[in-house]
Amino acid sequence: MDRVSENPAVQAAAEDYLDRLRRAGADLPDGAREELLDNIAHHLAESGAAVTTEAEMRSALDELGAPEEVAAAAREEAGSRPVRDESGMVYDVAAVLVLLLGGFVVPVVGWIAGVVMLWAGPRWSWSQKVLGTLAWPLAALAAGGGLAVPVLVPGRPAVSGPALVAAGLVVLAGLPAVCVHLLRSASRQRS
Amino acid sequence: MSELRRGTVAFCVLALLAERERYAVELVSDLGAHQALAAGQGTIYPLLSRLRTDGLVDTTWEESPSGPPRRYYRLTEAGRGSLAQFRAEWEQVRDAVDHLLTRGSR
Question: What is this structure's pTM?
Answer without folding.
Answer: 0.60
